[in-house]
Design a protein that fits this description.
globular, single chain, alpha+beta, 231 residues, Archaeosine Trna-guanine Transglycosylase, Chain: A, domain 4, 24% strand
């Protein structure tokens, strides 16, 4: 994996999202997700992405998708644009892939089914910070979120030191909300609301409320530290 494989600028996205629909994962920017791609339609999606811009979009299927999984079941309108960081082809012709979330997307009109996989018109959603938010208020929100994240983490030896070292003040509040939202166990509906919220301060408030006093007993979805990127 090199810097080029992780780099992304909005100009690289042409406005058409190749969507890999998932039933139970909400992907966020700034984190990495390993995937095994084996269905023929998604192998075709991956192979086109590798030959083109190395971009794949992970989207969440709406409830009730089971009845029409082989077709075109509805998707949530907010999705995560991902960069292919690395990949390996297996002897069976499937792929092991590592994806880096790079931006939120708003999915629009779905294109006619001319390819094996689904393609949507889409727009990049940028993070916003309230103009009236002071630097101290931002730092305070980050400290509160870090404290809640620590309470939600299992008691792994040295994990708190790793958290302070990896996160701390090295990343923005927006990045921190995404890392926490991805890592901690929360209902899919809550994760989708966090993904859809562009106001970083509002997203932080939503996440703190979701973690709440029960954070000390909440199971985590993934081991810590999660793979993430400052890109």
């Amino acid at each position: 994996m090199n810097d080029e494989s992780l780099s992304f600028s909005p100009e690289q996205f042409a406005g058409l999202a190749r969507v890999f629909p998932l039933p139970n994962l909400v992907m966020f920017p700034h984190v990495m997700q390993a995937m095994h791609i084996f269905e023929p339609r998604y192998r075709a999606l991956f192979e086109e992405a590798i030959e083109d811009d190395r971009l794949i979009t992970l989207g969440l299927l709406e409830p009730g998708w089971e009845a029409n999984y082989e077709g075109r079941p509805p998707l949530q309108k907010t999705a995560c644009l991902c960069r292919i960081a690395s990949h390996q082809r297996t002897p069976e012709g499937t792929y092991n892939v590592l994806l880096l979330g790079v931006r939120r997307l708003q999915l629009g009109v779905e294109l006619p089914p001319e390819k094996p996989f689904r393609v949507f018109e889409a727009d990049i959603l940028d993070d916003h910070l309230p103009v009236e938010l002071s630097a101290e208020a931002g730092h305070s929100a980050q400290r509160q979120l870090l404290a809640a994240f620590k309470r939600a983490m299992p008691k792994i030896p040295d994990s708190y030191d790793q958290l302070d070292q990896l996160l701390g003040n090295q990343i923005t509040l927006g990045m921190l909300t995404d890392i926490v939202s991805y890592t901690v166990e929360l209902p899919l509906s809550v994760k989708m609301a966090l993904l859809a919220e562009q106001d970083v301060f509002q997203r932080t408030e939503m996440l703190l409320q979701a973690l709440g006093p029960q954070a000390s007993a909440a199971p985590v979805q993934r081991t810590f530290p999660p793979a993430f990127s400052l890109n």
